[in-house]
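Discussion board: Methods & Data

I've been asked by a reviewer to show the raw model output for two of the constructs in my manuscript, not just the figures. I'm not sure how much to include, so I'm pasting the format here to get opinions. Each protein appears as its amino acid sequence followed by a line of discrete structure tokens. Is this the kind of thing reviewers expect to see in a supplement, or should I convert it first? Here is construct A:
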Amino acid sequence: MILLIIIGMSLATMIPRIIPAFIVDKLQFKGWVNRWLNAIPYAALGALIFPGIMTVKEGEPHIGLLGGLVAIGLAYIGLNVIIVVIGAIATVFLLTAVI
């Protein structure tokens, strides 16, 4: 009985996740919808990262903000994401060590 419940719960969570993968390929969106959908990951990432930037070191939010600005600058010039992350981490590390 418990095995049937586990299988049923698995299907109930799996089906809503799999169906969009098959449907999205067949849908054609307008240009503005595609631009909006492409912006969602960046907005979500920003919402997740910003609170961490502000709390890098207690009482000194400028350290996190400087690290974030370095990341923005490196990303703006088109560097690889790994380089952007390493640059931001190095900036925060160095500022934390100095201050």
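Construct B, same format:
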Amino acid sequence: MPLLIQNRGLDCITSTAELFDKYPHLQENARKFSSMPLVDVDPKGLLYVQQREFAATTPADNCVSVIGSGDATTCHLVVLRHTGSGAVCLAHCDGSSTWTEVPLLVKAVTSLSDISKEGRLELHLAGGFNDESKTSLKLSLNILAAFQKIKEDIYLETCCITEMNDIVVDGTHRPIVYGIGVDVKTGEVFPSSFTYKGPAEELRSARTFTGGQMADTYDSSRGLVQIGPCKWSPNLDIAFWLSQDDDTILKYLSTSPMAEPPHFVQHMKTTIRFLLEHPNSDSLFPGGQPQFYHRTASGDWERAV
């Protein structure tokens, strides 16, 4: 089935402008969404999803109350939820492999749901802006097209993407919404900010920096964050970046240099230092096993031994 909007199949479109012209209620929903107050999500109960990661769970999960992700500029944040079971998935997509990633997200939700029972699959999209290279636009169209290919009926509810997530500040285009969260119990999706981006933030960033593919980071049946094992070359020629000025790092390591959050350069340097300190990725995964993290009684994520 095609992607459904107000119970009708999405017509063939060639641009997001055409999408919003044909479905003006999506414009109105996007305006409402982007004007919602920003929620600073409490780390306790948060499951944070980094770039090129996804995580899925159900309302029965006692370890996670909110799944969230931030720091998206040209990237898109995707929430898929089954209204019957409440199973929900959040992904942070950067366009690296959209056509193979979207089926993974659908499978993550349907595997936690009995979709033959009452309820439907609802899709919420946020991210991107009017960037000069049109990277956001390309990703918007590819995500919509990939969901069009899914056999299950999927209802597009929120579409705060590209031009509907764009604001001009001091003559520069940038996103309005950089991050979102989804309440696991209620399914509410809201603009969010995050002070905590773990566990193992540096390791997960290193995996993405070195070309890791979209990864499922959470085992909801056991309440465990799972990372790796992942590999990178011990001979990465990246040390020179640490001597570069901020503008150079922004220019070459970002898809949207003028729109990045203030901590982007420091985040890049921290990731590069981590890779230089751990040239042999095997040492991080003894016996070739993933790293696991569980929620403690105090609400923090802790390495499971």
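Answer (T.O., handling editor elsewhere):
This is acceptable in a supplement if you add a one-line summary per construct. For B, something like: The mean pLDDT is 94.
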